[in-house]
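User:
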Amino acid sequence: MRAIETVKTVEIPEGVEGMLDGRLVTIKGEKGELTRDFSHAPIKIQLDGKTVTVQASWPRKKEAALVGTISSHIQNMIKGVTTGFTYKLKIVFSHFPITVKIIGKTLTIENFIGERNPRKAKIMGDTKVIIKGDDIIVQGINLEDVSQTAANIQNSTKIRNKDPRVFLDGIYVYEQHEGFQE
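Assistant: Predicted structure:
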């Protein structure tokens, strides 16, 4: 038996402005502005003052799940424009010292396990990448862009065709949290 309606509400805090144009949600805060299009989802989004309501009438299982997913995306947008997101990565090597540089929208990793060709990781969106010694700090207001950039960096140093218990070199995520911290 299907539910009649699935509803989730998201409260917009003080200092944050929300706008809705059809299913295009825009959130503005002190750190910046995020816009996301939910027109692919068969749900209804309403903005009443400082409350965003996401609902589906007579939802199937996937549509009911989409209500929770989209409300979580909106909450992450609000967290992003108020505090932001930070991922910290550690550069680990034993024999060959790794050199990391930022060239445009790519992070270049040179001398990884003694390889001659540099490995590259794409920096997504408006994400800011800072290199401090053996640490790489990835910051931004869009959670998807920040986490995908950190994943790109970690995956670019993935070791193939060798025993991962012996060859521990790489760049690994060791901390993730809300807010911009150095």
